[in-house]
Amino acid sequence: MKIHNATSGVALVVAVLSLAIAVRSDAERSAATNRDHDSTEKLVLYARHDSELVYELDLGQSGETPGDRFVIAAPLFDAPDGGRRRANALVDGYRVGEQVQENVTLAFRPGNQIVASGWSTIGRPSLLSITGGSGRYADARGTITVEEIGDGVKLVIQIER
Predict the structure, then answer these.
(1) How far apart are alpha carbons 116 and 132 in whole angstroms?
(2) Neighbouring C-beta atoms of residue 144, cutoff 10 Å
(3) pLDDT digit string, tens, across residues 67-123
(4) Which SS3 state, helix, strand or coil, does residue 129 take?
(5) Taking the model in full, what pTM does it have?
(6) Structural contact between residues 131 and 117, judged by C-beta atoms closer than 8 angstroms
(7) pLDDT digits (tens, 9 = 90+) for 13-34
(8) Which one of 33, 62, 92, 113 has the minimum C-beta count within 10 Å?
């Protein structure tokens, strides 16, 4: 009888330990998943006006009218005066009076992109919503603040995953 109880006791201890390990593993996986999806990253990048390519389409009546489109392509650097090239930006947008609607793609290494969109007012900082991304930035969300500085533009990118 004592042998049977000892065997039952060992089996119970093994079962409890197995359950504790399983619960701990699930908690660790959950924490890692939350960490992966709740991480934040801040990037500050700069575009220089002298390195931008700007294309404007004056559609309809001559001058600034609704529907006029613009496309801007620019390299992005890690310093206002140039520095190391980090990404390329492509901005596609249109103006409606003083309002500007922008769709922005930031291309980092191949396959790593951030896509953002939003409205701004000419001459004021823009606040764009990150709507997604690919590669390293898959499922990204957050904001991009775009501000004119000196001879260029400063982008503050707050990425949440």
Answers:
(1) 7
(2) 24
(3) 788 999 999 999 998 889 999 999 999 888 788 899 999 999 889 999 999 998 888
(4) strand
(5) 0.71
(6) yes
(7) 333 334 334 444 444 444 444 4
(8) 62
